[in-house]
Amino acid sequence: MPSTRTPLIAGNWKMNTTLAEARILAYNVVHMVGVPKGVDVAVCPPFVSLPIVAEALRGSPVALGAQNLYPAESGAYTGEVAPNMLQGLCRYVIVGHSERRAYFAEADEFVNAKVRTALEYDLTPIMCVGETLQQREAGETEDILRTQTSGGLADVDDVSSVVIAYEPVWAIGTGVAATPDDAREGIAVIRNTIAEADGQEAADSVRILYGGSMNPENVASLLEQPGIDGGLIGGASLNGEQFVALVRAAEERERE
Ligand code: PGA
Questions:
Q1: Which of 84, 104, 114, 172 is deepest in the core (most CB within 10 A)?
Q2: Which DSSP symbol is given to 171?
């Protein structure tokens, strides 16, 4: 049975783009992408650029996402951004990115709090999971993916509202993407973990993206794998042409 999951191509701009650059990049994407057929598209600029990018996206099917949130509505959390500040502005929010896990010591419990908070505020979390090179070489990939998936989704009633991104840490920003086989296998572990906890129907409804050096050259071979429902894209999302080429590849796959 063909998948009923609509693929998602999401750009993670990370800590890149000034206000002026964000505005230009957003207008370029909107202009070039038009109305994608059968594919959801989102861009996730830095917090300060969200309003200006929202303005550029107005009237376009390209959705807006944030790169993080803090799991509280207000309070003494200097430097953090609350979910109610993003509600109504963004459709998506990235949580548990490996850079946050590595540099800001975010553990599964905290990621889980962010996932649950996002859902409470009508934001679709894009929850990232993935093993480091060291963990892969030690044969721990499956354990890590299972732990991060079940930890991040703990006490989530409707897992189908969550998007998961399988991002092997060693593939992020390195120019060396996972092989299509490795990406498919990692995603299968994640989907099986969800099936065991929440049933096959729930697992089949969750969109699971691949992320890590996805680019116009490797996108087709990754997206043709069963179970890969799109991509979370860093580097290539900073270039309008490249990002839109990924959207076109996803449309192409949907047509086949
Ligand atoms: P990359 O980043 O495409 O630059 O590897 C992906 C990500 O970190 O989301």
A1: 114
A2: G
